[in-house]
Amino acid sequence: MLVLPKGVRHIPGFLDRSRQEALVEAVRHVVAEAPLYVPEMPKTGKPMSVRMTNCGALGWVTDRELGYRYQPEHPVSGRPWPPMPDILIDIWRAVSGSDKTPEACLINFYSAEARMGLHQDRDERDLETAVVSISLGDSCLFRVGGRSRGAQTVSFRLESGDVVVLGGEGRLAFHGVDRIYPNTSTLLKNGGRLNLTLRRVNL
């Protein structure tokens, strides 16, 4: 039996197919207003392998000059991020354990070749409220460890409709995506994986 680090919860199949489809439709409306773009790593300017956008009052962005941060507008269009769809807020309320409302939803699109290295979610002023992550589309191999990069990690598959919550002792757990399993879901017309990460940014 897989033992997850303290504070890390995996909720398999939290969203049934109809709710997944409704969420994808909501994401399509977001992307129509705030198109996916390729972010850059700080200092090096190296393009990340995912494409991303955001919705909510704030969005997480990164580029060579200013690095990791939150800002209220799309870095390419300069327009405010679209409002967060109600379906996302409903999911947050159901699993986050927080009375606060999420301020940011980062939307990452993973193609078959995309990855995400081990990292902590620590660009927020609020490092107590849980982070909620929703998987849609193709499966991935997710890895999660402790609060230090060298801590032991465990890996498991995330399927479409799964939710992961990083809270309590797991709020600052290192985590990442080691690979995508292509053609494991029919949810997204052209394949790939969407990951939606809901965060509270300010105290």
TrEMBL record:
UniProt: 2-oxoglutarate binding residues: 108-110, 193-199
Taxonomic lineage from the root: Bacteria, Pseudomonadati, Pseudomonadota, Alphaproteobacteria, Hyphomicrobiales
Domain Fe2OG dioxygenase: 101-202
Binding site for Fe cation: 119, 121, 175
A GO term from the CC aspect: cytoplasm
PANTHER family (alphabetical): ALKYLATED DNA REPAIR PROTEIN ALKB-RELATED, NUCLEIC ACID DIOXYGENASE ALKBH1
UniProt KW keywords: Dioxygenase, Iron, Metal-binding, Oxidoreductase
Native species: Sinorhizobium saheli
PROSITE patterns hit by this protein: FE2OG_OXY (PS51471)
GO biological process: oxidative RNA demethylation
Gene3D superfamilies: Alpha-ketoglutarate-dependent dioxygenase AlkB-like (2.60.120.590)
Cofactor(s) the protein requires to work: Fe(2+)
GO molecular function, one term: broad specificity oxidative DNA demethylase activity
Superkingdom of origin: Bacteria
The protein's name: Alkylated DNA repair dioxygenase
